[in-house]
Amino acid sequence: MPKVPSEKLRSLASANKAKEFKRILETDLYPFLDRLPAAQQKSLLDILNNAGNKNVDLVGYDTRSTSISAGLKSLVKSIRSDWKNGYEEQVGLRFLERVYGS
Hints:
Blueprint: H1 5-15, H2 18-34, H3 38-59, H4 61-100
């Protein structure tokens, strides 16, 4: 038998599918948390807000998204401007490989 709530939550999370675990949280745990005294609610909100901010900072979504988008646009531009020559170069390399046995 779990001795602290976190042990029971871990057990429920591993024993249930995601939808069922979410239902348990929404119907049983969330209402309980909403009834906590104001000071405990504030402490819990501070913890949750800090945890959420750490994850966002680790990903750096905006910077990463801009970088990836710029790289993709550059790749598309390169392919559109040089696709024919690229194909001709590949054919030439294959010809050389056949002739010289590389």
